[in-house]
């Protein structure tokens, strides 16, 4: 009975091992296809995108957009200093209640409820850049796995090729982490813009907040253009470093026969 269990267990392990090996073999094929064909195609594609007007004329493109937040009339319930009326506190039956010192009219309520449009210029650029960010992260992850599965077991001596693998792997990991940070940068832009717009809505007479929104939009537009260039550069660097060290990455250690022959 114990023998049957042991035999079945070994067969199961063998079947699972075969599936893992199939995955590793397919990973190697996909990674090499990516290196020799995928990366060059991607670099050419990114170069073509960077040469389009949205990216090439990034310093002259007008990215400003109307916030749809008008400056209320003087009698719309704002105080003399241009701020919305403060709330005063009163005590009634030992309870604290707050009420507006001045009631706002219908026009003020309308602009407070009106939607604020997103900057379409920035949004269009995000739609172009974001898929390439995701693609680079996925490609870097595949290369990382490809090198990892080819690292030989630890032995004494003859580790020059292994050190090349480790250096290349570190470079790929750096690209992966740096590119992933682009996602966070985009989300932080939306959060920062939302906070500034809430200030514009709360203090419509303060022009500094309106200009701050415009400056933020310009900064993000330029950052997105630079992101695309950086993505292209990352692809070029990965392609270059892998090709230069391809043989050492695939065969980090020479055989004893080759060593003797040399």
UniProtKB/TrEMBL annotation:
Residues 116-258 form the Proteasome activator PA28 C-terminal domain. GO terms for cellular component: cytoplasm; nucleoplasm; proteasome activator complex. Pfam families: PA28_C, PA28_N. GO terms for molecular function: endopeptidase activator activity. PANTHER family: LD45860P, PROTEASOME REGULATOR PA28. Residues 18-73 form the Proteasome activator PA28 N-terminal domain. Keywords: Proteasome. GO terms for biological process: regulation of G1/S transition of mitotic cell cycle; regulation of proteasomal protein catabolic process. Belongs to the PA28 family. This is Proteasome activator pa28 beta subunit. It comes from the Eukaryota. InterPro entries: PA28_C, PA28_C_sf, PA28_N_sf, Proteasome_activ_PA28, Proteasome_activ_PA28_N, Proteasome_activ_sf. SUPFAM superfamilies: Proteasome activator.
């Amino acid at each position: 009975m114990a023998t049957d269990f042991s035999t079945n267990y070994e067969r199961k392990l063998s079947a699972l091992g075969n599936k893992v090996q199939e995955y590793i073999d397919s990973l190697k094929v996909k990674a090499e296809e990516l290196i020799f064909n995928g990366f060059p195609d991607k670099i050419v594609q990114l170069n073509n995108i960077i040469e389009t007007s949205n990216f090439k004329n990034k310093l002259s493109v007008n990215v400003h957009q109307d916030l749809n937040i008008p400056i209320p009339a003087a009698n719309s319930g704002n105080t003399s200093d241009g701020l919305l009326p403060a709330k005063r506190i009163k005590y009634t039956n030992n309870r604290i209640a707050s009420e507006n010192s001045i009631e706002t009219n219908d026009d003020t309520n309308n602009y407070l409820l009106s939607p604020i449009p997103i900057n379409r210029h920035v949004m269009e650029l995000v739609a172009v850049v974001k898929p390439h960010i995701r693609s680079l992260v996925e490609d870097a992850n595949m290369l990382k796995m490809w090198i990892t599965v080819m690292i030989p077991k630890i032995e004494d001596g003859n580790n020059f090729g292994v050190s090349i693998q480790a250096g290349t792997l570190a470079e790929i990991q750096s690209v992966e982490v740096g590119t992933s940070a682009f996602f966070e940068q985009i989300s932080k832009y939306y959060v920062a813009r939302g906070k500034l717009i809430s200030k514009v809505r709360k203090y419509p007479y303060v022009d500094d907040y309106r200009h701050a929104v415009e400056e933020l939009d310009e900064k993000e537009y330029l950052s997105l253009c630079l992101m695309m260039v950086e993505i292209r550069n990352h692809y070029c660097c990965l392609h270059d470093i892998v090709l230069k060290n391809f043989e050492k990455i695939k065969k980090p250690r020479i055989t004893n026969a080759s060593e003797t022959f040399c």
